[in-house]
Every structure is written in C-alpha cells, then in structure tokens.
Amino acid sequence: MRVLPYGSRAAMVDFDDPSEVLGLHASLEQDPPDGVVELVPAARTLLVRFDPGRTHHDRLAGAILDRSTVDVSPRETAEIVVPVRYDGPDLAEVAAAAGMSAEAVVRRHEDGTYVSAFCGFAPGFAYLTGLDPALHLPRRSSPRTRVPAGSVAIAGEYTAVYPHASPGGWRLIGRTILPVWDVDREPPNLLAPGTRIRFSS
Amino acid sequence: MTAKIDVVRTGIFATVQDLGRPGLAAIGVGRSGAADRGSLRLANRLVGNPEDNAALECVLGGLVLRFSAPTTVAVTGAPCPITVGGRAFGSNSPIPVGPGDELVLGMASQGLRCYVAVRGGVDVAPVLGSRATDTLGKVGPPVLSAGMTLPVGHRVSPHPGVDLAPCALLAEEPVLRVTVGPRVSWFVPGALSTLLTSVFVATADVDRVGVRLEGPDLSRARDGELPPEAAVPGALQVPPSGQPILFLADHPVTGGYPVIAVVEEADLDVAAQVRPGQRIRFRLVKGSDGSNPLHHSRGPRPAK
C-alpha cells in the first residue's frame, strides 16, 4: 500500500489488494489519527481528508502505514436481504454471454454473498463485490438514457441496485421494491460501505 | 408575518446554496454548496447572518426578486449593476429593501457567479443537513425557476455595522495554485511542467460540476482505465483527450480519470468565477516539489 498526496487537505491510500480497502477504512474509522475529517473508500483506494491545521501529509502517512489491516472482515452489521424479481431486460443477453441459462444466472446471482465496497456515480449507488466470476461481463456498449430506480444490475466484477432513475450502462437483470436510498431515513443509504447483502427472489 | 421572496426572473441559472453537506462522500453524496464559498460567507456577514445560512447563487446576474416584507439584502461575487425599487446600489454592501420592492441584478461585467443573501437566510427545507442544490447528485432544493416563492428564515446574528466590504477585482488572467496530484505518474515526464508553464482557456463547458479547459495536451504515459477513486474539489482530472477538467462544488464523488494536480482550496473561489473564454494559469505551491512528490509506501521493496 502506498500513501499518495492529493492536494494539501487529503491523502490517497492506494492498495495492491482491493480487499484491504475496507479493512483500513474500518480501522481508521474506529480510531482516527489526529486531524482526519473524512474517509472515502473506492475500488482500490481510500481517500483520507484531513484538517491541515491539525496534521500534515507526512505525519498522516506515517500513522496510516502503522495500521494493521490484517484480518478485517466486513463490519458487524445485520445482513440486508434485497428482494428481487429477476425479469430484467438484459437477463437473456447476460445468459447468452455467460453461456448458461437465465435460470442459472439467477441462481448464481442469488447464491452470492455481497459486500458494499464503495459508493459513487450517484447518491446511494453502492458497488457490491462478491459477484460470481462467471457473471463478470463488460457494460453495455451503449448506455441506456434511463434506467428505472430499483433496477438490479451487473457490470464487471460488481452488482448494484440503482437508487434513482438515471442514465446507466450496466446490464439489468432484475428489480427490487426495496428503497435503498431515502433522504428522510437515517441513515439514508441502506448499502453503506462494509454492509453485507444478499439477493432473494 | 414571515417574509417571502418571489422569484420573478432567474437569469441564466440560479440555485439555493449554503456551505453544503460535507462528510457524506462515502455514501455517494458530495459536499456541493456555494461554488465561491468566500462570496457566500461575505454576503451572509453583510446582512448579519451566520456565515452558513442559505443564499442564492446565480450565473452572470439577471436575477430579479420581489420581497414581501422589509429586510436587508447583500449582493457579492461577480460585480453587476444592482437596483432596488429602481434605485442603484453597489455590490458588497448591505442594502435595505422595502415591502413589494424588486431587487434587479444586471449583467455581471466580470466573473461568473453572484450571491444574494437575505437577512434570516433562505429557509427552504434542508436535505441531509443542507439547503444546497447539488446539480449532479440531484440532492437538495430544485433549481430556481420564475414564479417560485422562497421562505425567509429567522436565523440571524447581530448586524455587522459596516457599509462596504472592499473586495479585490478578479484578475484578468487568474493564477491558481496547485499541488501535485495522486496520479502524476500516469503522465509523461513533461506533463506537469506543461501544466505549470502554459495558458489554459476555459471552454463554454463551465458549470457547477467543473470547468473544461483547453490548452496543450497533458499526455499520458500509460493507457488503460483507472478504477473509480474519490475526487476532491479542485482536482484537475485528465481524460484521454489530454484536456483537463477542473472540478468545482458539484464534482462527481468518484471519478475514473487520473488527477495530475489539485488546485488549493483557497483558490477555488477564484476558480468558480472563471468565465468561458477566460485565460488561466497554474503555479505550484511553494514547498511541494513536483519532481519528487511526497510518497510513502509499505510492502515488498525491490532487493538492493
């Protein structure tokens, strides 16, 4: 792992092993080094924003490199079960591309245990890891201009639930009625980084 | 009776903004808030508000507001002609407004964004702790449109007792200070010095998300995509075209293009006032050595 400078108020921790991101995130969240104001996990990195009045890059980098990220499992939260109706418009295409039946795609997606790795793209859009490698497929060559809220989709090594209607290039395999994002709820995001998720039809 | 503001005209584009909703990037929500935070703070101070009250941000002036009750307003940011009830007033000053009066902002002569604060603050419903409109994340109150009515709040501080806050004019060719970005190693060795020695021009593609710049290519030394990683305001992200995009208040929470350098937070207010066609330059912050960026690592080291 490397700690890279990111302006004068943030450092970016870059990992060779993406599974270490959530471990360091959990460790720094439980016991933040002096001056840390925000942690933002992503696919292979953790952004650490800090108050330049209280610490500086070198000092923070030292504190981060001292952390052990060994044996950090997903946060001890209740598992969230997302009910799905597997009738997405791309299901047949996904089955053909993966060389299996639509039923087999559904079974493999349902059998997975997922962990929310990070959010991005839109508020509450969580990238869930743990997708069966047989279902790792590229995005659609041409994105849709509108994907309905609640769409359950896959792209690359991730699966996700679209929290809002938006444009999108992921392959849609189903939909859920569970609102994963609600600004009037505390917390608004059901699928915050570190959360464990299962899909069930 | 609670005071209200009728939006008569919005000009090109106007929103409600405060200092945003920091600390929520991990759930996919950016900070948002005023693009020129210093001007929002000043407008609030001039009317005796706490600095973080919500006010209005508009592009190049053109905003027309009608007030239902006597109050105090202030206009800051890009300088523009200002009238209240037909009488002319200056920027960066508290302005008394009577019931039924119209505040009219003319076309801004330089800069891009004007701020209008009203005593008590714009009191639309907060979302996730802020009244800012995040135009990319679609969080917060709707973009302003003619015919809307905005409630005025009661959150005030003492009147500041000043008539005018002197403000420096925006430079003809602003120089923005940068530090080295996390992905400078993705670029050819001369790219950073190209960034620091060239003039870049703001294209017409300027909004609250960012400023698309035009200049000499910042060529990448490696192909391929970067998995999504978190961004900050001020990040200079470089797509394969080699033409950088400077992120502003509503930037995406994560992005997939390498960031070559980061504009200092203190210079973001100036960056938010850059208008299409304007020339800008970048300068490295003293003490941040571009040739040897601060770099720490753990893990397997090459054998000696």
From TrEMBL, chain A:
Gene3D superfamilies associated with the record: 3.30.1360.40, Cyclophilin-like
Keyword annotations of the record: ATP-binding, Hydrolase, Nucleotide-binding
Keyword Nucleotide-binding: yes
SMART domains: AHS1
Domain of life of the native organism: Bacteria
A Gene Ontology molecular function term of the record: hydrolase activity
Matching InterPro entries: CT_C_D, Cyclophilin-like_dom_sf, PxpB
Name listed for the protein in its UniProt record: Allophanate hydrolase
Residues covered by the Carboxyltransferase domain: 1-191
Pfam family of the protein (one): CT_C_D
TrEMBL record, chain B:
Family matches, as NCBIfam families: urea_amlyse_rel
Keywords on record: ATP-binding, Hydrolase, Nucleotide-binding
Biological source species: Amycolatopsis regifaucium
Residue ranges constituting the Carboxyltransferase domain according to the UniProt record: 26-301
Protein name according to UniProt: Allophanate hydrolase
Molecular function GO terms recorded: ATP binding; hydrolase activity
Range of residues in the leader sequence: none
Keyword Lipoprotein attached: no
Pfam families referenced in this protein's UniProt entry, alphabetically: CT_A_B
Gene3D superfamilies cross-referenced by the UniProt entry: Cyclophilin-like (2.40.100.10)
